[in-house]
Specification:
Helices cover about 45% and strands about 20% of the residues.
Length: about 400
Amino acid sequence: MAPTDTFTRWSVIASGEGGGRITSQFFDRTENPGIDDRILVMNTNRADLRNTIDRMREQLHDEQGEEEMMGSYALEFGSQQGAGNFFPNGEACARESLDRIVNRIKDNFGHADAFMHVATLGGGTGNGSIPYVVDQFKHGLEDLDDDGAAEEWMDSVIHTAFGVWPYYTEPPQRHFNAVCGLSRLLRVDDGGQNADMVLLAANSHLDDEENGNGRHYDSINDAIITAVDLMIGAGRETRSVIDVKDYVTIPSQMDAYHFTPAVATDLNGEVYELEYMLDQAAGNTYVPMDVGTTQAAYAIVRAPESMIENDAITEPDVYGAFRDWTEKHDINVAGQASLTPKRGRGSDVDVLLLLGGFDLNPLLEHSWDEFEMLGDSLAGGGRGESDLSESELDRIVDNLESYVDRNAE
């Protein structure tokens, strides 16, 4: 096996316009460690797909034609032109085209070790389809594959999901979708675990100008891509073993597998202590949260190769700083720390904290009133190709409340 094949091979599957917008920014990087070009954007609307492909072409500065890019990186699914900002319609479209989705992903990414599924949670297409697709890949492929090949391959694939919360000022319908989407990413109908790891970011929290973090869509999306790069890079080139299996195994056993990134970049490693760098990252979580409620944490420190080779930063340094940081904040967590190199010289150090199992109520409080206000009127309301029954909505609520209550204790 070639050395490059020893690293975790990721694939990115995005659905909906928001997910496509985020994913298109992967192509703005000179390299995508662990991902390469294993990227697929899906939508029920061909015009939205073309917009995403046009953004990709701009990022690539490539002469590939639009149709060639569409054939390589895009998939239109379902017979509806859009989901009407109602997540059951997005799920219905994915159910209708599941065999096409499965075959396309199997043909293109059949050697992937892990998937990163990306969706914005306020919409209907991505928010409707991604939780369903994850569930089917983990639990339902035996119904589609007679020879068992897809099922055998998928037995070892890890499914992570990145969900982005709508702005707090967006219409109630988007907050209704977001609450339902979070529940469906976390739990399947019978209350079991769905995605192996659910990563969360909130637009309003990352666009908080009062705290000096003013960002807008492109820069918010770039912050998300930075976190994913750091997370994936740790499993690709690292001085110690920390990878996606480490991220998901213990948190799943703890029933605390939701995470948010906390990132600090371009810190002068010759000036700042590592513990200070971890504090800087912890001050930039991607959702509102109390860091003290964290139940699982992973620290990834990315430093220039020259600093690592000269022992300016070592693995024991990182381990010790992470241990001291957790003790200082009285965080009793399951977690690991890792040192990973980046090319070039200089002294700029990047830090990613993946904080998991924290109390979700500070995030949900921004959406719960809107969710409850719309719930009764939308359940059984006949909004499109797929209705949402009262029993289905009750199950979504029960699943989320049981998960949140467990992690708020």
